[in-house]
């Protein structure tokens, strides 16, 4: 019955296509993380400049940096700026923490990255220039390490998930034949 | 004399001071009897100790509001806009000026550089000094330094230079501010004068980002955060003042600047900590100014019945005067204090 063969063939292709797409989707997640980490590193570098050379107030510095960075640093900075200037008596740590939480859902960052960012927030705003810079550098250092790791993951696991998606689809089709 | 109590829903407190305190401290403060807040002068926040209020005629501790490290940090962040790092000059000087001209004194550990204080670290104490305007607080002092009308002969063309002397918290700064306003505004028999305030500690005009937050009069310019001696010279050169106002003189270079101004025909009104002429004479710079005869009047203020009360007036030679500006008993009266 030729129509049955054609039907099975189409179904098989559909399964393979879907699982390959799933693999690519998971791989893309791994590829996004280093980009996001690099944006955060840039943003913190800018913050260090603002604090060291400009002596810019934190809320103002956040707004300025948001205009010069990409996702997710821009979203975090904007939200922290909004909360700090909202006039509700919010501390920098709270503003930063909530901003990180708000942006979190849309990122590909890992739980370790979140801890780095929140730890950094805890030091924000209540100490002198040297101390602020020390904490920024520490956070940047940790983010850089995570970025290097994430780049490795992106190559290795990215390829793995792409291949795995395709192969899993093929396997499903073979098994179901 | 103006009434020195503010209404209990005083916007100075509710809009300018309370929003800068950590939540818990703010709540504790709002539970205080309203009468206490009316004469609130200082709020002292010290880590590990109860909130301490200094009010018109005493003090109040709030034992239910022991300041935690978190309360302290939150308060510090609210005062500084979470940007302590941007306030190096303020940390060096030991205080921060708030919008509205209030001042927060800082206590902590000093970090030295070449024997001078570079900054403060590990802050553990804050002293909010509530700055309030009391229009009219200086009317008595004005009558002393610029007598017109009844009793006096031909009204003077301009006010005499004067030194306002009192112990801390007797209203020197408030009186200076109001005096600047009155002289600048002018009134019957007293034309408005060009006033320059050299406001080294940002207390008189309460400038925030260069703009006076207090009413200092329409003919008044302010050199904010400017060292007194340098500021007086700058003003003389470029701002054409008829009256120079500066508080808390006492450094050697102040004497030279005051002489310069007085000799240029400018009225100088300033203040000094102290209780009597004898006491302030012990400070070399002030002794020099007094000996040079720069001031035509020494006005002593007291806290009773209210801050800003004139308790004694001496003429330029140190002789006591009565309320109408006449010598008392031919100058036999001893100096107060």
Ordered list of secondary-structure elements with their pairings:
The complex is a heterodimer of chains A (about 180) and B (about 325).
Chain A: H1 2-54, H2 58-66, H3 73-84, H4 92-104, H5 111-122, H6 129-176
Helix pairs in contact in A: 1-2, 1-6, 2-3, 3-4, 4-5, 5-6
Chain B: H1 11-17, H2 23-30, H3 34-38, E1 40-46, E2 50-55, E3 58-66, H4 69-80, H5 88-93, E4 95-97, E5 103-113, E6 116-129, H6 139-145, E7 162-166, H7 172-185, E8 195-199, E9 220-224, H8 228-238, E10 243-246, H9 252-263, E11 267-273, H10 277-281, H11 284-291, E12 297-302, E13 309-315, E14 320-321
Parallel strand pairs in B: 7-11, 7-12, 8-9, 8-10, 10-11
Antiparallel strand pairs in B: 1-2, 1-6, 2-3, 4-5, 5-6, 12-13, 13-14
Q: Looking at the chains present, what oligomeric state does this protein adopt?
A: heterodimer
The major β-sheet of chain B equals: 8 strands, mixed
Structural class of chain B: alpha/beta
Q: Going by CATH, what is the homologous superfamily of the largest domain in chain B?
A: P-loop containing nucleotide triphosphate hydrolases
Radius of gyration of chain A: 22 Å
What number is the mean pLDDT of chain B?
85
What does this 3D model show about the protein?
- The complex is a heterodimer of chains A (177) and B (337).
- Chain A is mostly helical and 177 residues long.
- Chain A has helices spanning 2-54, 58-66, 73-84, 92-104, 111-122, 129-176.
- The radius of gyration of chain A is 22 Å and the shape is elongated.
- Chain B is an alpha/beta fold.
- Chain B folds into 2 domains: 11-129, 2-Layer Sandwich (Beta-Lactamase); 139-328, Rossmann fold.
- Chain B is built from 11 helices and 14 strands.
- Chain B has helices spanning 11-17, 23-30, 34-38, 69-80, 88-93, 139-145, 172-185, 228-238, 252-263, 277-281, 284-291; strands spanning 40-46, 50-55, 58-66, 95-97, 103-113, 116-129, 162-166, 195-199, 220-224, 243-246, 267-273, 297-302, 309-315, 320-321.
- The two termini of chain B are 23 Å apart.
